[in-house]
Amino acid sequence: MKPEEYHSKDYLPRGYYPWPDLISPHAEQMGKDMEGWIDNDYTFLTEKQREKYKKMRLHMCTARMWPDLTYEQSIPCNRFMLQYVALDDQVEHSSPKEMEQMRNRCTAILRGEQPKPEENALYQHIALIRDEFRTLMPAIWVERFIHYFYQSFRYGIELEYPYKKAERPPSLHLFKTIREYSVLMRPYLIFGEIESGLVLPEHIFEHIVFQKMISHMTLTVAWQNDIHSLPKEMAKGTEVFNLVFVLQQQYNLSLAEACSETFRIHNEEMAGFMTLHSEYREFGEYQEHVDKFVYYAGVGLQGVNTFYLETERYLHGGAGFAWPEKIVNEKDLL
Fold it and tell me: Which family does it belong to (predicted)?
């Protein structure tokens, strides 16, 4: 198989997952909001990058993953969708020290510090996200969100750096460990608790079976993302953090063979998640909470799959991606 012959829909077509494919009734307004943020606040990006982000229509990812949010609830979720995607994209060529500074600064703002007037939209908007979530959600949930933001940045984005710098992938086993965090899904995963209004207490959330389900859910999204983002990453030529590339490197597989194995691993991961949920029903009075969490995670999985099939973000050749530019990384990002 030649790279140009690859199409992610051949593996993950629309409606692939056993949950409904929905969309928020507020999608149009969410799009207007995001375009306004990009034009008026994300001015540290180049004009070309801002246009790319608008064409990605990231608000549709929010609208499809969490379709039952009220408009008020959707605002910080939509705001975070843009903030974390832009952060992850634009930090690509930053040094470990710069990444650490950004992670510490964002976390400090989430915990209450105020951004300085000269700090860019990544910091201004993380403060707005903090304030909006504090208004909507209990303290236990806000703390959970902050923890997952920190964890995904520290053990996801930052741990990828040496392998991307060396342009060589880690072993498959180590890759799976890091990819669970670098897909950045964990802070998004708990948005379903906003939809349901059922916030899991800590002793349920930290239960080993529930945490294992979260691990399976997160890795399912990681492999889904690797399948859909492959056209963009093949164009880059130096990307190593994709399951397809890791499998090719470790087992000397062809592109077609590695894609088939990636799809198999994806399905195995999803089956593990669904099996745990169906077999372990010992959460007592909180079983309904867990079931709702799983349902909304499933709707999110279906929704982000539809988004991937519609967005320009992962076009062949990388034509739809907002590639980081030196002026952003070195001068304006921190």
Answer: Belongs to the terpene synthase family.
